[in-house]
Write a structure and sequence with these properties.
36% of the residues lie in helices and 20% in strands. By secondary structure, the chain is α/β, with parallel strands linked by helices.
Length: 242
């Protein structure tokens, strides 16, 4: 099959392209660097022409309120181009619990992306993943102050980006789900505990202070960012760190 992978040069997209091509498909990466702009629509018709499947892995450049407009416009443009091009399956990557944290602009924006797809004219699949292991350094940087890092005890179920890419590849190469598949890492940690494990592995002497008001994940209530019933990926956090 032929796949147009929009956002195909990023962390997940580049691996999805590689996986699909290794499986004998034709997967072409598209991004701003290849002349495709999902906001202006530049290059979209050409990018999806002849594709059986579109995999949209683009991401908003910001995590604030502007992300809602990004996902609204980009999805409308992509769906219009894909529908015109006769695409039979449209896949996006979202977040486990995305509909449970309305306090976060970015999560509301990702849920908006899902609803635009669900209401669109093309058979679809949504893959919801738990938090990427690769994002832990960024999470630590948000609330770092001198010798301390403040983190809430929010339950987190980290998943390796390579496992996310494999799951997206599998879904994209299959029949449309017309629904959602949840995927997650094999272990659940409190975020502050995960911070301590990460710093210890790196030989970083900073102290993690448990602070229920610190950082983006402070507004998350309960364990909505985890899913014990999700399809569990194999990579454990300690193995990923090593």
């Amino acid at each position: 099959m032929k796949f147009a992978v929009i956002g195909g040069t990023g962390l997940i997209g580049s691996q999805v392209v590689r996986n699909l091509n290794a499986a004998g498909h034709e997967a072409v990466p598209h991004s701003q660097s290849t002349g495709v702009d999902v906001i202006t629509g530049q290059g979209l018709d050409e990018a999806v022409a002849g594709a059986d499947v579109v995999v949209n892995l683009t991401n908003s450049p910001t995590f604030d309120g502007a992300s809602l407009a990004f996902f609204q416009t980009s999805m409308e443009n992509l769906l219009a181009a894909a529908h015109k091009g006769g695409v039979g399956h449209f896949v996006i990557l979202s977040i486990v619990g995305v509909d449970q944290v309305p306090e976060l602009d970015y999560y509301r924006a990702k849920r908006l992306q899902e609803t635009v797809l669900e209401a669109g004219p093309i058979p679809y699949s949504i893959v919801r993943a738990t938090q990427f292991m690769e994002f832990m350094d960024a999470v630590l940087s948000w609330t770092a102050d001198g010798d301390t890092v403040r983190l809430p005890a929010t339950p987190i179920q980290p998943i390796a980006a390579a496992d996310v890419a494999l799951a997206v590849t599998e879904v994209a190469a299959g029949a449309p789900l017309n629904g959602i598949r949840d995927i997650g890492g094999p272990e659940i940690f409190a975020l502050d505990e995960l911070g301590r494990i990460t710093l210890s592995h790196k030989g970083d002497s900073r102290t993690v202070v448990t602070d229920p008001s610190a950082g983006m994940f402070a507004v998350v209530k309960g364990d909505v960012l985890t899913d014990k019933d999700a399809r569990l990926a194999p990579t454990r956090y300690a193995d990923w760190l090593s």
